[in-house]
Design goal:
Shape: globular
Structural class: alpha/beta
Largest sheet: 4 strands, parallel
Low-confidence stretches: 238-246
Distance between the termini: 49 Å
CATH architecture: Alpha-Beta Complex
Number of domains: 1
CATH superfamily: Protein tyrosine phosphatase superfamily
Mean pLDDT: 87
Helix content: 40-55%
Strand content: 5-15%
Number of strands: 4
CATH class: Alpha Beta
Order of helices and strands: EHEHHEHHEHHHHHHHH
CATH topology: Protein-Tyrosine Phosphatase, Chain A
Strand order of the largest sheet: 1-4-2-3
Length: 246
């Protein structure tokens, strides 16, 4: 679960491989964290190959399909892509996804973010990382917090690497080569955030340019941001009272 200064605690969760949740694990998320919905960024072919999140569905979690697909993949075609390759890949997810993908995603997000929800793709790394970074930026999280969150999932990814054996075999990679693809360097996210700023001004401006509705952006920010503290109000004219009557 991301932790950032501007984000309401306990509302946004992230994971990889939705199909790995057992019914018991899903039950804990619902009972202890109030999980109400999951926004699934996987493509139709990924859902067909790996299946729905049955454990979550068994506990009444709402499954919202918001495919984030169509972006270029040749940017990480190398067996061990470097930071520059990964940065281009993240930017492709933002700007090269199928037309309307981000608009639909934020429309669904604006309707789900009033209760605890889960964001996930297949690995929970790049698509999920970009979406979470966008949300954190909207609520005012610092760049350090965003990059730290992106890097935080690496240990879990590497520990579960063997769940993705079919991926590296299908691509002709070795296990070690595939492990290198699961490493989420904070430098990659840092460079991507800089690139977004240079090209678009901000993540919010990039989203609006992609057709995301301004109302949906505002709604997501309002639902997810920590409310501003209410300042105590003094009686009108109190400062003008004579010293002895204050």
């Amino acid at each position: 679960m991301p932790r950032a200064s501007g984000l309401r605690p306990g509302i946004l969760h992230r994971s990889g491989d939705l199909t790995a949740f057992t019914a018991d694990e899903a039950g804990v998320l619902v009972a202890q964290h109030g999980l109400a919905s999951v926004l699934d960024l996987r493509s139709d072919s990924e859902v067909e190959r790996y299946g729905p999140p049955r454990g979550l569905l068994a506990h009444g979690v709402r499954w919202l399909r918001v495919p984030l697909t169509g972006y270029p993949r040749d940017t990480i075609a190398a067996r061990q892509p470097g930071v520059a390759d990964r940065t281009r890949y993240l930017h492709g997810i933002l700007t090269g996804a199928a037309p309307g993908s981000w608009r639909f995603l934020f429309r669904e997000l604006s309707g789900a973010a009033d209760r605890p929800f889960l964001l996930s793709c297949h690995f929970g790394k790049d698509r999920t990382g970009v979406v979470v970074a966008a949300v954190l930026a909207l609520v005012g999280a610092s760049r350090h917090e965003i990059t730290a969150d992106y890097a935080a999932g690496m240990a879990d990814l590497l520990a579960k690497a063997d769940r993705f054996t079919d991926k590296w075999l299908r691509r002709g990679h070795t296990r070690e080569e595939y492990l290198s693809r699961l490493r989420t360097s904070p430098l990659t996210m840092e460079r991507w955030l800089t690139e977004v700023t240079v090209r678009h001004g901000s993540i919010e401006e990039a989203l609006l340019a992609l057709g995301v509705a301004a109302d949906d952006v505002a709604q997501v920010r309002e639902l997810l941001a920590v409310p501003a503290p209410v300042r105590p109000r003094h009686p009108a004219g109190a400062g003008d009272l004579p010293e002895g009557r204050r």
